[in-house]
Amino acid sequence: MASPIITKLSKALGAKVVKSRALSGGDIADLSLLTLNNHTEVVAKRPRVDQPDTTAIETLMLKHLADRSQLPVPKVLFTAPSLLVMSYIPHKGTTEKTKAAKSVAAHVAALHQIRPKGKSPYYGFTKDTFIGPLPQINTPESNWCSFFTDHRLYAMAHSCMNVSKIDTVMMRRIETLAGKLPDILPATPESSLLHGDLWSGNILIDGDKASGFIDPAISYGHHEMDLAFIALMGGLDPVFFDTYTNHYKIDAGFHEERKSLYQLWPLLVHVRLFGGNYRNSVSAILEQFGC
């Protein structure tokens, strides 16, 4: 006899689940590819028992991206506590790196031209979200430098220190850097809709094109945040940046200064989760800015 959740899921999808197999790639959740009796394939995502249930927030983020942008993201088909069922996006990997990078660039540049509704400038989101299993604070601010300093840099650094992933010496270095940021970061850049977690595992490539973007950590902010993330761990051909600038401008100073500063956010996330050599990468950026 089918379980109550399978019965409910089959009713919601209009077809019965006839097969399931595990998918790789879930760091904090278990992923399964479900085959329905109408030959449709869908993905079921369940947070692991030792991880927070991010289902409701991920549903909100995917729907916001789908409603506000043309970014190809999975369609939410069904949700229940600790269960998210989404459309499956076929992707067989990269067969042509240059064309794939150009395709990603076009999608990301289009996403970054989506502005928040209502007052401007606006940085943040209507709710706090998650980056992986970690809280991402999105309390709205009208000053980008303040938002980045308080809700990205300081928030994650304090989280790292609270679990002894960094010490007070590194925290003081981060505080010294924070004092320099108003002279380096723009106060009111255009606010863009950000994916927020653009590493290679979250960019689905099907041959020579981007077929999907998964596991977002959205907010509205300076578009260079996503670009710094891609430069750090996107795994894309360098033509990405040339193509991106054909669609959307990157201001002078990004590659020289701001890229490294914005990379502190994903690096501190990795320090919080994994520790290890990521601390050395954080230290190198602090040293770059004399801290």
Low-confidence stretches: none
Instruction: Quickly give the structural class.
Output: alpha+beta
Average pLDDT metric? 93
- Taken together, the total number of domains comes to 2
CATH class placement of the largest domain: Alpha Beta
Strand order of the largest sheet: 1-2-3-5-4
CATH superfamily of the largest domain: Aminoglycoside phosphotransferase (APH), C-terminal lobe
The run of helices and strands is HEEEHEEEHEEHHEEEEHHHH
Supply the CATH architecture of the largest domain: Alpha-Beta Complex
Main sheet characteristics? 5 strands, antiparallel
* End-to-end CA span: 63 Å
Descriptive account of the structure:
The protein has 291 residues and is of the alpha+beta class. The protein folds into 2 domains: 4-87, Phosphorylase Kinase, domain 1; 93-288, Aminoglycoside 3'-phosphotransferase, Chain: A, domain 2 (Alpha-Beta Complex). 42% of the residues lie in helices and 19% in strands. The protein has helices at 4-13, 55-68, 97-111, 144-162, 168-180, 224-233, 239-247, 254-274, 278-288; strands at residues 17-23, 29-36, 41-47, 76-80, 83-87, 93-94, 129-131, 134-136, 192-194, 203-207, 209-213, 219-221. The strands form 4 sheets. It has a 5-stranded antiparallel sheet. Strands 6-10-11 form a 3-stranded mixed sheet, covered by helices on one side. Strands 7-8 form a two-stranded antiparallel sheet. Strand 1 (17-23) and strand 2 (29-36) form a beta hairpin. The protein is globular and about 60 Å long. The protein starts with a helix and ends with a helix.
